[in-house]
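Annual report, structural modelling task.

Input specification for the pyridoxal-5'-phosphate complex:
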Amino acid sequence: MYVKTERFRPFEKKLWLASPTMHGEELQYVREAYDTNWMSTVGANITAVEQLAAEQAGVKYAVALSSCTAALHLCVKLAGERLYSRPAISHGTLEGRHVFCSDMTFSATLNPVVYEGGIPVFIDTDRDSWNMSPTALERAFALYPDVKLVVYAELYGFPGNIQKIRQICHAHGALLIEDAAEAMGAFWADVPCGGFGDYAAVSYNGNKIITGSSGGCLLTNDISDANHARKWSTQARENAAWYQHEEVGYNYRMSNVIAGVIRSQYPHLEAHIAQKKAIYDRYWEGLRDLPVQMNPFDQTRSKPNYWLSAMIINPEAMCGQVRSDSEALYRPEHGKSCPAEILEAISGLNAEGRPIWKPMHMQPMYRMHEFITVNGSGRAKTNAYIAGSTEDIGADIFHRGLCLPSDNKMTAEQQERIIAVIRACFD
Ligand SMILES: Cc1ncc(COP(=O)(O)O)c(C=O)c1O
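The model returned the following structure:
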């Protein structure tokens, strides 16, 4: 069989999509935690992370937690309590309420909505930013005027017009939760991501722009909300000599050891972003005469952190590709390619690429949920998408797009080999 990329030798050591980049100083704070025996969920590293996270996002308070998912969960609970007060032992702050959610994101953005009994309604994606479409959100409010909560994620660290999203939310009396897990260090209109939401969350998961191996922070400007989140995260203990409880709690606090790693990663944030930008620029340069585009963004207002470089193939250059719920098949064609072929070629190099995050409205568990598109056309029924169409934009980007190896430690030479393999897919 004709194999376009057979001639390429694999890397000896696997090249990851995005792996932790350590600098050595991390050990100093970890060591300090060890030497002083602050090996639990209290200590100087946690206090330092909370200060750094709040400063970085330009908000007043940060609460250090075990993950961004935990942070989002407490964001949802705070919003739910503010909007619809519930009895303290209720598990479902949002029980039966519709919540507008980003469609093109990782499931952790909206899992907490479901933990709290909310019903996600998915909002289609803006073609020019791959983030939630403000036009589709306006349509959603026209269809569901009672909705009071929007959960919005910044995809791959390339901010869209979240200012407009915030205006729309506030015009409809709705609160905005900003999931900035992928976007720490990015800006929209000179405002840092994490600084737009009524509540926001950032992630220190191992693949993020800076990491503690895991961890996350909840961000807010309201001190009573910050204190409430901190209390929930430590099993909701009341101020008493014994274990006294008035509401349900969680074991969500960040460890002081992990905080030691995160604390010493912050000074490297700018350098990590510069490395990610160089990766994005090299792909842009190396692929620019192919029928593909890189992650789109507004060149004047959006300042990405370039966390994950991704590309999308022009419709006329797509070879045949079909996907079931777990497998992809494609038909090689001269002069054309598709994500399945390119991902196979990248994997053949011993490197890691990944399909675009599969939109939530296409996930089996959400098939029956409402999906609001830009023009009201609904879910795509086939693999035949129309270029630039406003019909099911998320499905179209998923069909034609893929994430490229974006590890900070990838050398320019290694990246050249990845670019050469991608180019060969279009032979
Ligand atoms: C958009 C988005 N939201 C939330 C999360 C969850 O973050 P964490 O792993 O810190 O819980 C992730 C990634 O892991 C993410 O990419």
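The longest strand covers residues 61-65.
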